[in-house]
Write a structure and sequence with these properties.
The protein is an alpha/beta fold and about 260 residues long. The protein contains ten helices and eleven strands. The protein has two domains: about 5-105, Udp-n-acetylmuramoylalanyl-d-glutamate--2,6- Diaminopimelate Ligase, Chain: A, domain 1 (3-Layer(aba) Sandwich); about 110-230, Udp-n-acetylmuramoylalanyl-d-glutamate--2,6- Diaminopimelate Ligase, Chain: A, domain 1. The chain has a six-stranded mixed beta sheet with strand order 5-6-8-9-10-7. The protein has a five-stranded mixed beta sheet with strand order 1-4-3-2-11, with helices on both faces. α9 (about 205-215) links the parallel β9 (about 195-200) and β10 (about 220-225). The termini are far apart.
Length: about 260
């Protein structure tokens, strides 16, 4: 007998709303016909979900380009056509959208971090998990070789790099998403005696400039920047796998989103 799953059942399985998490569209008692899991509920993801008969979209990032729902008022005020097209798709096809951000990051081990480490095959190399970072001790390689490994395993076209790319590295700090700011990332170098840091994104004038000065002063430090999407998307892939196990009678589709930028 096929079990009936309602939207509230899925939200409860995720631990309920935390912080900015919210059911942006849909009703908790609606029956779930299928779940689409994505880094962001882009217009393309919404349409693909509808075409596959999936009426619940779980999006890590905010539906309308912000985690703060009050910011939508500005889009409504100017009658933004991109906002209105997305809204129309959701309404016409009766789609439900659950934005699941803070709860995933605030798990005992950050669920997004867990997904990235799993995708890289680095689980066995983890030395320590901090709230915003993990430390791994890898087989010795050069920073350039590490960059190639990241590109290959994550299926991405490029990694931005700073520092000494020919140096050998072993101890590496890993930070997902927008956690590369100096206040979080820079102290990790000394606190954990790191050779390199890998992160999603951060202010370019903070940690990268620290690495520039370290390299200029003869200190062997390096930085590899993946991109926000590229560092967080594997976490949503892992979430889709777990939801498939939790709700075996409901179709669950992981919907990867292409890297955003073209390098000219």
């Amino acid at each position: 007998m096929t079990a009936i799953v309602r939207i509230r059942d899925v939200i409860d399985a995720l631990g309920g709303p935390v912080g900015t998490d919210a059911l942006c569209f849909g009703e908790p008692e609606e029956i779930v016909t299928g779940i689409a899991v994505a880094f962001t509920a882009s217009q393309q993801v919404l349409e693909q979900a509808q075409q596959n008969g999936l009426n619940l979209i779980i999006s890590h990032e905010g539906l309308f380009y912000s985690h703060h729902h009050q910011s939508y008022a500005k889009l409504i005020e100017v009658k933004d056509p991109v906002y209105e097209a997305k809204l129309r798709t959701i309404a016409e096809h009766r789609l439900a959208v659950y934005c699941y951000h803070d709860g995933l990051h605030r798990q005992k081990v950050d669920g997004i971090m867990e997904g990235l480490l799993a995708e890289l095959g680095w689980d066995a190399y983890v030395q320590e998990h901090e709230r915003a970072a993990s430390v791994v001790e890898l087989p010795t390689c050069t920073v350039g070789e590490l960059a190639e490994e990241l590109k290959r395993k994550l299926g991405i076209r490029l990694v931005r790099a700073a520092g000494d790319l020919t140096m050998t590295c072993r101890r590496v700090g890993v930070l997902v998403g927008f956690r590369g700011g100096g206040e979080v990332a820079i102290p990790l170098f000394e606190r954990h005696q790191l050779d390199a840091i890998v992160y999603g994104e951060g202010q370019e004038w903070e940690t990268p400039e620290y690495v520039r000065d370290a390299y200029y002063g003869g200190r062997k430090k390096a930085l590899l920047v993946l991109g926000h999407l590229e560092s967080e998307q594997p976490g949503m892939k892992l979430l889709a796998d777990r939801l498939s196990v939790r709700f075996p009678d409901v179709p669950v589709h992981y919907m990867p989103v292409d890297s955003l930028f073209t390098v000219l």
